[in-house]
Amino acid sequence: MKYSEYGTPVKIAYIGGGSLNWALNLMSDLAHDTRLAAEVRLFDIDRAAADRNERIGARFAGVSRGTPARYRTVARIEDALDQADVVVISILPGRFADMANDIEIPAGYGIPQAVGDTVGPGGFVRALRAVPIFLEIGKAIRDHAPNAFVCNLTNPMSVLTGALYRTFPDIKCWGECHEVTKIRKLAAWIANREAGETRWDFRDIDVNVLGINHFTFVDRITLADRDLMPAYRKFAADHADAGWREREPAPDDEHARYFEDRNRVKFDLLNRFGIAAAAGDRHLAEFLPAGDYLKSHAAWGFTLTPVDFRIRYQEQKRARAEDLASAKAEPRAVRSDEALIDQIAALMGQGKHVSNVNLPNRGQLEGLDLDAIVETNAVFLEGEITPINAGGLPPELEKIVLDHSRRQMGLLTALAEGNYRSLAPLFCSDPLVRDLTERDAHAMFQEMISSTAHLLPSRLAAEAA
């Protein structure tokens, strides 16, 4: 297969190719990019959604700044993986109705959740649905694309990235998350305010990342070799009580209301632990007891995202996608905030790229278990992903992170080995569940398992609770 001389050839297998979010971001990024000549194979159990994205991809190809990417729907995962250079995975484990149960059942026991997709009762049960699927995807990659680089975009990211390594230890996989972008954007805003003009964006900001996905921290913030941490600490202290956001959302802007925050949790964690929190407040709050932030979330400047909004928002995205596919809307070659296109280009030999990613711990994060999935910076260079030694977290914070990491890896081990009776004690040990009586915690777990049993392996559903 021949490509234009103006782009480096890359074959991308997209698992979950009917995606309404990440797939369209990648299409826009490929249209904006001038480094790659991509062939993208779209595989999805919803064939109609993948077919729609094939049509959308062709329209993005028509506005490309470089060599137009080519999109093709395939019927089998094996067809997508054949000779793939890169595999991208973004799937929804279950339906929004299942996510509604993940949120509403714990709420009935007095446990609020802002997101419910990473830790806490919602994240735990979501992992039960997704890990068996990822174990099978890992086998398919092992058998049909063992040399491919694999990017996981699906939550709960730590557990699911670990599941791919569990099945295929030699896999070249990373988990990609944009949450750290939030502190980089804030640091750029502080620098621009000091300069009195907009000179920099978040890509100009370098941070040293430590933690696990959605519970990430940074102990260095630099801009062109300037240490921005003193300015950031002062800004956080000045806004600790009222919080801060760049602009207030319009009254009818539900997306901003439910997905943005005032950074008060972020600033408070800096005060508590002496290290800057990087992820968004909605995620950070779920790693700590509900009494810390979740039960008084309004006072802390963030909301609990209702599933009915997620359903409405999904329908808005679906309508937008249908308009793109039918030429009622025009595609634009606009670069997203995601790092994936730069990571792929670097792996294909187009320079060097550094960004935060989720990888097995080979010692890059001190204090956490080896092989646990941790989030630090890594260098992407032709044919290589190399984690950067990040150092360690403050002792009190390290204890919290280690507790979550071991629970995540324990969950994965239980599912991979079929030891389903060990799941309930792990579930009950989460900080959001610990305050319940043992009876209520087990009752909640049984209720959540029953609500999603149709999406679980039969023996898991029968034995877990």
UniProtKB/TrEMBL annotation:
Swiss-Prot/TrEMBL cofactor(s): NAD(+); Mn(2+)
Cofactor annotation comment: Binds 1 NAD(+) per subunit.
InterPro entries listed in its UniProt record: GH4_Enzyme_sf (IPR053715), Glyco_hydro_4 (IPR001088), Glyco_hydro_4_C (IPR022616), Lactate_DH/Glyco_Ohase_4_C (IPR015955), NAD(P)-bd_dom_sf (IPR036291)
Protein family per UniProt: Belongs to the glycosyl hydrolase 4 family.
GO molecular function, one term: hydrolase activity, hydrolyzing O-glycosyl compounds
Protein known as: Alpha-galactosidase
Matching Gene3D superfamilies: AglA-like glucosidase
Positions contributing to substrate binding: N155
Binding residue positions for Mn(2+): C177, H214
Keywords assigned: Carbohydrate metabolism, Cobalt, Glycosidase, Hydrolase, Iron, Manganese, Metal-binding, NAD, Nickel
